[in-house]
Write a sequence for this structure.
């Protein structure tokens, strides 16, 4: 899980360069102004590249915070659906 | 292939304190990652400037195009897809795919392509345009199915190709090669239905990267190489001429040496486009002359200048060739079949582009020839390109004759030199080309994109001149550009370049005399900046000013006239 959070932090830093490292674990779509619909898709695709996985667009609406995404990725790793 | 993560990181490397290079991306779909990839690929090509890519309204490709020129960008990129030409050719609309619709779709595409073509041409009259024609497969509209090109499908493809063909004739429009895109991005791997339906962005990321790179290549292409130095034995021809004799070397199918013939054919085409071709060979010069004189040679010897044929080190040959051409190693490709020779030259000239010719390697020959061609790729061939080899020969002859003169001034007067000045030269593509590629006699090394050049030419009091030169040794073509502003009796000289082929003829004296005479100015202010490579310009200004030049150096008309610089040539002045 720690490895997933560290790699996810890198993804967030790539998509939201203005975000301080300390702010990333608490990031949500509500608290990050730059997290609009375009950024959401970009973040999703960067995560797909980092974790060598496919994320369904249908899941996008629920992936609205760092914690939610980390939990989603952990579930996928547990299910064997990711290169994490 | 660049990943999205790499593209986003590339964008972070953009410098923050330089003038941005602005590009408008015109497309009918959500630009999403195409915008990111286009910006990232451009940023790699333009590392000294931050790249800004802006997009228009979703679904309004014509509107984005119409508004683009007024925003004065450095370039406009157009990514056209079938759905922009008729929504029924996309997956986001349910307009009907039946036989009754097919003729109407063709008519709609024809009409829409016609109007888009006109808008793109209008934009390109003001701004360089890079365009990619439909890269996604047509949806399953046609009763002939996907394996057969029925009349309607063939007609649609023909219409798109015809529009691309007509647009490519415009001097400021570049069209992405569909053939190249097919090689780097397999057609079956391009479309992302889910992304198209959920976000309006139709491309898989790999294709978005490939398309962004293709458009970036058109907007900011690598500068073409200027010269090629080739080996002879087992390179220009098959065999060792010193052993087999002039009749014993080959470059044809009959002798299984066609690869050498194709190489010669490529070099001949490059020479005809103005690329300089020289030979560096360890051989007996007399034997080589006889081989080159064979009537079946595809690369005829008059297209080669100079010939370095002896038994000395090739790095020495390359040094003499570069001196004769008066260009840097970074502008040159060196081709040899021997890894040892390539290493020796590369060690002496780290900037030179070395390519190994592999005579028996058919698997790599096609890529070799294509790669060679790409190193010299350019949008158009100018009159100056065609003149280059002959003007270098004449410049070389001039330099050697000049070095023998006891009375060089008399020699210069007897040249019967003539300078033809075009005082309305902002729109002449050669002007910007010269400014952006000249290093040695360059006032400040400043490069301009099309938008900056237009802005300079349109500013109050602006002038842009270029000058062509010829004398009894031949024509050098357009060799100088002067650009700046005249205000309150002063010339602010912002750009001044002159080709190195024109050195030592006193043409620069005429340039300054004309500035005073034609503008009526009493003073010239030089926007000078020292660069690593503008030593010849610095030397000239130091002699003229009597001191080392500095930024904003000034020269009054009275001081210039006191210098009494010799003016050897006749001047023809043209205002239109």
């Amino acid at each position: 899980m720690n490895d997933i959070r560290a790699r996810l932090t890198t993804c967030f830093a790539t998509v939201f360069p203005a975000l301080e490292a300390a702010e990333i674990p608490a990031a949500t779509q509500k608290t990050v102004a730059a997290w609009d619909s375009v950024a959401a898709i970009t973040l999703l695709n960067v995560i797909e590249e980092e974790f060598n996985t496919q994320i369904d667009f249908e899941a996008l609406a629920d992936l609205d915070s760092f914690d939610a995404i980390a939990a989603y990725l952990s579930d996928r790793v547990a299910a064997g659906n990711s290169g994490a | 292939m660049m990943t999205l993560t790499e593209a986003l990181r590339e964008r972070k490397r953009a410098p923050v304190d330089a003038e941005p290079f602005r590009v408008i991306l015109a497309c009918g779909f959500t630009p999403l990652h195409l915008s990111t990839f286009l910006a990232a690929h451009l940023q790699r090509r333009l590392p000294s400037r931050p790249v800004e890519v802006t997009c228009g309204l979703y679904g309004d490709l014509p509107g984005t195009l119409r508004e683009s020129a007024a925003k004065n960008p450095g370039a406009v990129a157009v990514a056209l897809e079938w759905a922009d030409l008729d929504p029924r050719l996309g997956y986001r609309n349910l307009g009907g795919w039946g036989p009754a619709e097919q003729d109407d779709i063709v008519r709609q595409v024809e009409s829409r392509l016609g109007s888009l073509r006109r808008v793109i041409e209008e934009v390109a009259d003001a701004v360089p345009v890079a365009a990619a024609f439909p890269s996604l497969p047509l949806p399953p509209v046609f009763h002939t199915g996907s394996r057969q090109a029925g009349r309607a499908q063939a007609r649609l493809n023909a219409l798109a190709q015809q529009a691309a063909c007509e647009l490519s004739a415009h001097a400021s429009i570049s069209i992405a090669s569909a053939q190249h895109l097919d090689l780097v991005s397999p057609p079956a791997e391009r479309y992302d239905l889910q992304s198209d339906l959920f976000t309006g962005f139709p491309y898989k990321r790999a294709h978005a990267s490939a398309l962004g790179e293709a458009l970036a290549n058109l907007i900011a292409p690598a500068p073409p190489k200027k010269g090629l130095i080739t080996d002879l034995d087992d390179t220009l021809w098959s065999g060792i001429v010193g052993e087999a004799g002039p009749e014993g070397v080959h470059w044809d199918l009959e002798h299984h040496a066609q690869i050498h013939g194709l190489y010669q054919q490529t070099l001949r085409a490059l020479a005809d486009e103005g690329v300089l071709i020289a030979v560096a060979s360890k051989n007996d010069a007399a034997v080589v002359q006889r081989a080159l004189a064979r009537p079946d040679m595809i690369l005829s010897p008059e297209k080669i200048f100079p010939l370095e044929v002896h038994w000395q080190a090739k790095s020495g040959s390359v040094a003499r060739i570069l001196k004769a051409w008066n260009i840097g190693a970074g502008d040159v490709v060196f081709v040899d079949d021997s890894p040892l020779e390539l290493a020796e030259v590369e060690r002496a000239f780290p900037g030179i582009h070395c390519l190994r010719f592999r005579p028996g390697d058919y698997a790599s020959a096609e890529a070799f020839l294509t790669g060679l061609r790409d190193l010299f790729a350019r949008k158009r061939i100018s009159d100056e390109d065609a003149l280059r080899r002959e003007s270098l020969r004449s410049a070389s002859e001039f330099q050697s004759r000049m070095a023998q003169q006891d009375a060089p001034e008399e020699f210069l007067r007897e040249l019967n030199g003539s300078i033809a000045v075009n005082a309305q030269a902002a729109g002449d593509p050669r002007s910007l080309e010269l400014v952006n590629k000249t290093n040695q006699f360059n006032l400040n090394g400043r490069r301009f994109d099309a938008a900056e050049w237009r802005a300079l030419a349109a500013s109050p009091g602006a002038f842009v001149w270029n000058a062509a030169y010829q004398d009894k040794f031949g024509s050098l073509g357009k060799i100088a550009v002067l650009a700046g502003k005249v205000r309150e009796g002063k010339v602010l000289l912002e750009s001044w370049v002159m080709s190195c082929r024109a050195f030592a003829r006193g043409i620069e004296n005429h340039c300054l005399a004309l500035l005073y005479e034609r503008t009526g100015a009493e003073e010239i202010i030089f926007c000078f900046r020292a660069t690593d490579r503008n030593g010849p310009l610095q030397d000239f200004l130091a002699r003229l000013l009597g001191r080392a030049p500095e930024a904003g150096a000034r020269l009054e008309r009275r001081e210039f006239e006191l210098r009494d610089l010799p003016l050897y040539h006749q001047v023809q002045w043209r205002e239109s």
Notes: Chain A is about 50% helix and 0% strand. The helical segments of chain A are 2-15, 37-51, 66-79. Residues 2-79 of chain A form a domain with the Non-ribosomal Peptide Synthetase Peptidyl Carrier Protein; Chain A fold (CATH 1.10.1200.10). Chain A touches chain B at residues 11, 14-15, 17, 37-38, 41-42, 45-46, 49-50, 57, 60 (CB under 8 Å).
